[in-house]
Amino acid sequence: MEPGTRFKVYCSQCREKVELPAEEFRLTLGRTPAQAHYSFGCPLCGAAVRKQAGEKIVAALIGAGVRTMRLVPAEG
Description:
This protein is mostly beta strands. It has one domain (6-70). 12% of the residues lie in helices and 37% in strands. The chain has 1 helix and 6 strands. The chain has one helix at 55-63, and strands at residues 6-10, 17-21, 26-29, 37-41, 48-52, 67-70. A 4-stranded mixed β-sheet has the order 5-4-3-6, with helices on one face. The chain has a two-stranded antiparallel ribbon with strand order 1-2. A hairpin with a 7-residue loop joins strand 3 and strand 4. The mean pLDDT is 92. This is DUF5679 domain-containing protein.
């Protein structure tokens, strides 16, 4: 992870702008780009926030070393 990388985001619950280190984020990549999202916990109100992630956001989060999970279809 790139040391010291921080991101400014808005909490969808309390609507405050917060700045968090990259390690506070989780990125989930779905089968299509439209299914990509990132999540974080708001340090002000405690809400678990999940937001859509476009191509630029995905690239920035991956570049900063954010933990990423790729969803794959279940076999069966």
